[in-house]
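CATEGORY: protein folding

GOAL: derive structure tokens
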Amino acid sequence: MTDTDLLADFTRLVEAEGEFCLQVAVVTWPGPSRPTVVWTTFRRWKRPPTPERLAAAQQKALTVPRYFRTCEMCGERNNAGHMHDRRMCQGCAEQHLGVVY
């Protein structure tokens, strides 16, 4: 997945309680093979953000380990919920460690 794909799939701009909020999705796993998405607010604005401000906030979110991490094996950035651990993505864990998801 490219950074553009990650931002399209895992970020959204919502209006709530008179503010504009950039939210980031984190995938959680309450049970095997049952991923769920939890949306958390990353940035808030009183007025709609300019496209430049929104893009800058999204780029910043990509660097926050709570939301996204880069696999040390394949070099791909992933949603934190799609990581096997802090350093390896689920795909690499399947391929190299024999883990089944």
User: Anything to note?
Assistant: The mean pLDDT is 94. The chain has three helices and five strands.
